Amino acid sequence: MIFRQITHDDLGCASYLIGDEDAGVACVVDPKLDIDEYLRLARYFGVQITDVLETHNHADHVSGHGRLAAATGATIHVHRLAAPDYEHEPFDDGFELAVGQVRIRALHTPGHRPEHTAFLLFDNRRDPDRPWAALTGDTLFVGDVARPDLAVDKDEGARGIFQSLQTKLLNLPPDVEVWPGHLGGSMCGGPGMDMKISSTIGYERAENPSLAITDEDAFVDDALAKLGPQPPNFEAIVAINRGPLHDASVDGRPLTPRQVQVMHEDGALLVDVRTDLQFDEAHIPGAVCITALRAGFGTKLAWLADREKDIVLIGRDDEDARAAIDLAQAVGITRIGGYLAGGMTSWREERLPVDRIDRVTTAQLRELYQTAGAPQILDVREQAEWDAGHIPGSRHRPYHDLTALPDTIDPTRPVAVICGSGQRAATGASLVQRGGVAHVTHIVDGGVPQWGRQGWPIQTPEDPAAAAA
């Protein structure tokens, strides 16, 4: 038997290659857009990919089912409630697909989406009547459960997930392995998602906090309380995944520095994909910092990009920019105007103007905080993080909502941008500078949690009068 988990680390997505080496056949579950790894593994094992299974119409990433079907001739299977516009074989609850001696059984688990389906794996060479694994898709994760608000009313979705968990998945034997559709960092789950790649039904039943809630109303309240903001392009991604099959790829064209300048003047978004350190030291004026060298590039880009305007990518070199183009396509961002040929080096060689952003540690911010000329502090974390505790006197606006400066920020005074670790603050600082603040500081090497661990003042709703001691 062949069983491989393939991840898209930037988005926290997991897909699976399942096959029978003796029979020479395999299928792919929830393929990512870049299909090279599936094709490589199929050649390595000497199998043909004959089928593609989708757990649901994905809202966070573009599926590779069109590319796989074009490359292999595979048949695409999805629950009939998905109702896609592409050629496919619809299935219902209980459907089974034989892949050699491996059997894959559909277990309809609505909630995250109405069509959502988990898949139970059986091996005829072991116990043919006992599943050994469940591909739980976007219902049950390691340490958490799926968010309920990307297709239906959030209350209805949460109740659907509760029923799917309590009446179906949790009735499986405790030793059944859990292989989820997402790992920690995905927008499809909550803050409890683990980076572990798998678990078991028994372990999740004992240790997953969401599964300990056996009252449906209490489960719904808990699920809705943990919801983060809805990403702005999830409906567009669903439309792509439900639409006609496509196997085309976006190839950005190389641009000279002058072309980049002209496109920026015409409204293109300049996205610098280098590290935040490189960006802070020197960047093109007006560019936004979203490093492609850490997880979450695609998610951040999807928040900030205008789908009706061009995006120009700036990397350390051409390879950086081209890699970022692939990550952009995975979240349905395809209006790529091009990339700066030669990377930032070509811009510097022409002695074109650059901007810089100061870098200050949390400890250094503490020293500034106690002076008369302290900067304005802008916290760019999510609302739930802010509510859990923030620096007294700081302002708040999540980084993805910084299309304009908050009214509480005076652009003539210095602004220090902080988050939970320094990564979102990098993007936030670039947006604040783009918004017209001349003196911007990026808080690095930690953030508000580190500030609190040092025993410095933290304000919460329960303690609104926290003093700047």
TrEMBL record:
Keyword Transmembrane helix carried by entry: no
One Pfam family cited in the UniProt record for this chain: Lactamase_B
Domain Rhodanese: 264-356, 371-460
Matches recorded under SUPFAM superfamilies: Metallo-hydrolase/oxidoreductase, Rhodanese/Cell cycle control phosphatase
PROSITE patterns per the UniProt record, alphabetical: RHODANESE_3
Keyword entries, A-Z: Hydrolase, Metal-binding
GO molecular function, one term: sulfur dioxygenase activity
Domain of life: Bacteria
InterPro entries cross-referenced by the UniProt entry: Metallo-B-lactamas, Mito_Persulfide_Diox, POD-like_MBL-fold, Rhodanese-like_dom, Rhodanese-like_dom_sf, RibonucZ/Hydroxyglut_hydro
GO biological process: glutathione metabolic process; hydrogen sulfide metabolic process
The protein's Enzyme Commission number: 3.1.2.6
Protein name, per record: Hydroxyacylglutathione hydrolase
Native source organism of the sequence: Paraconexibacter sp. AEG42_29
